[in-house]
Automatic annotation (TrEMBL):
It comes from Paenibacillus vulneris. Its EC number is 1.2.1.10. InterPro entries: Acetaldehyde_DH_acetylating, Ald_DH/histidinol_DH, Ald_DH_C, Ald_DH_N, Aldehyde_DH_dom. Pfam families: Aldedh (PF00171). Residues 11-272 form the Aldehyde dehydrogenase domain. One of its GO terms (molecular function) is acetaldehyde dehydrogenase (acetylating) activity. This is Acetaldehyde dehydrogenase (Acetylating). Keywords: Oxidoreductase.
Length: 498
């Protein structure tokens, strides 16, 4: 009897989880030196196969371009690895001698990893490396449209780990990714934590699974260009960032918000560096294919400007790097104001930084709360105001938001999973790393004795006061306390005479 495909996929999940759990118990017994050697081998393999995996991803999904997909893979192999290679994740990882508290790292167990179609191979490499670094096993659920390249990336990581003496089974990937399989993976008793990167629906499913989950929200990233900005430098960084892999990283710029005073020079520089400005009719034509219902049209995601323009019969120069439309409003009825995951930008004009603040908040509230904000500015007071007021977890200053947000050109932790905090209904605002996949136990020494508790003395009631209260409680209305006191004293005096 042939099993239903959904049942087969569910059974595969259960089988892989049991294999992963058994392997993780062996991995947990390894030393820091052994773990570091395994992760180093994985990073070397990722670097060696970066080009091939990038090509596979583009060939299968159609998103982005080979060179930038390869660059993402190398980012994991170099930047992410460089940031985590010396991090202690085994045994006692910190000692606070002043307060006599030792911190002990313990893995969470088995990680369920949900992989997006926009960045499939790099996300697999990334999640495998941070999981193994923290002595966890990982079971991967790839996006169905990126199955082959995700499987290949997972096999590469598994083989590299095995050659470095890791246990068999610490890295597993579903071969039949269905909605039912992903649900089973997230809810199964052997799953200990979920790393969810994907659409809003999938992230919500992760949070409702009953398991601890790190999810990410959408990134409708606004970029404010202040009148003090170095315009040529800002444009160069923005275009390099926005066009990287045709805009498939969620931290890429979605809207430019520019001060009126420098708008002419900004437009001139954008055109000089390869931006194509859409006229009103062309803008409307592009808007007609931007959305499908209330969601982004997947056919425009990660496509070149020429392909997107060609969808609606617009001819743009072969060297056009990005398509820009001027916009004045924010909302679902204005598609250019939303996250586009492609080389498309909206351009808003404001009078000053305060108006720029309000516009950036509007854009974040439309669909990017908690994610990333960019600012190009040379005045520290304005930069500080943006940092204090905005509901964004990463405020990227004078650099492209794609590279700044993931930690490639800034000092924040290099990562491909960016938390949005409570702004975006996420548990953390951090860039996710191996430290998020550890339980930290604290061994705490006694520093002082507790002072013994001394029971409070119970004072015996004054007999006269007690008598006064009793008489007053039973007395006639209108009698004063002083009169009652005098009466009680006279009665007691007579009793003493006898």
């Amino acid at each position: 009897m042939k099993l239903d495909p959904d049942l087969q996929s569910i059974q595969e999940v259960r089988t892989l989880l049991h294999e992963a759990k058994a392997a993780q118990r062996l991995l947990e017994s390894m030393s820091q030196t052994q773990i570091d050697a395994i992760v180093a081998a994985m990073a070397q393999a990722a670097d060696r196969e970066a080009e091939r995996l990038g090509a596979l991803a583009v060939e299968e999904t159609g998103f982005g371009n080979r060179a930038d997909k390869a660059a993402k893979n190398r980012f994991v192999a170099a930047d992410v690895y460089g940031a985590i290679k010396d991090v202690r994740t085994v045994g006692i990882i910190r000692k606070d001698e002043q307060h006599k508290v030792w911190e002990i790292a313990q893995p969470v167990g088995v990680v369920a990893a949900i992989i997006p179609s926009t960045n499939p191979t790099s996300t697999v490499l990334f999640k495998c490396m941070i999981s193994v670094k923290s002595r966890n096993a990982i079971v991967i659920s790839p996006h169905p449209s990126a199955l082959r390249c995700s499987l290949e990336a997972a096999k590469l990581m598994q083989q590299a780990a095995l050659e470095a003496d890791a246990p068999e089974g610490i890295i597993r990937c579903l071969t039949q990714p269905t909605l039912e399989a992903s649900t089973e993976l997230m809810r199964h008793k052997l799953t200990d934590v979920i790393l969810a990167t994907g659409g809003t629906g999938m992230v919500k499913a992760a949070y409702s699974s009953g398991k601890p989950a790190y999810g990410v929200g959408p990134g409708n990233v606004p970029v404010y260009i202040h009148s003090s900005a170095d315009i040529p430098k800002a444009v160069r960084q923005i275009l390099q960032s926005k066009t990287f892999d045709y805009g498939t990283i969620c931290a890429s710029e979605q809207a430019l918000v520019v001060d009126m005073a420098v708008k002419p020079s900004l437009i001139q520089e954008l055109k000089r560096q390869g931006a194509y400005f859409l006229n009103e009719q062309e803008k409307q034509n592009i808007e007609s294919v931007l959305m499908v219902g209330k969601g982004l049209n997947p056919k425009i995601v990660g496509r070149s400007p020429q392909i997107i323009a060609g969808m609606v019969g617009i001819s743009v120069p072969s060297d056009a790097r990005v398509l820009i439309a001027e916009e004045t409003a924010v909302g679902h009825e204005h598609p250019f104001s939303m996250e586009k995951l492609s080389p498309l930008l909206a351009l808003y004009t404001v009078n000053d930084w305060r108006e720029g603040c309000r516009r950036c908040i509007e854009l974040l509230e439309l669909g990017g709360l908690g994610h990333t904000l960019g600012i190009h500015c040379e005045e520290e007071a304005v930069i500080e105001a943006f940092g204090l007021e905005k509901p964004a977890s990463r405020i990227v200053v004078n650099t492209g938001t794609t590279f700044g947000g993931i930690g490639a050109t800034t000092g924040i932790l290099p990562s491909l999973t960016l938390g949005c905090g409570s702004f975006g209904n996420n548990i953390t605002s951090d860039n996710i790393g191996p430290q998020h996949l550890l339980n930290i136990k604290r061994l705490a020494f006694g520093l002082r004795e507790m002072e013994p508790s001394v029971p409070a003395e119970i004072d015996a009631p004054d007999p006269i006061e007690h008598a006064v209260e009793a008489v007053q409680a039973r007395g006639k209305p209108g009698i004063t306390r002083e009169e009652v006191m005098q009466l009680v004293k006279s009665v007691l005096a007579e009793m003493q005479l006898h």
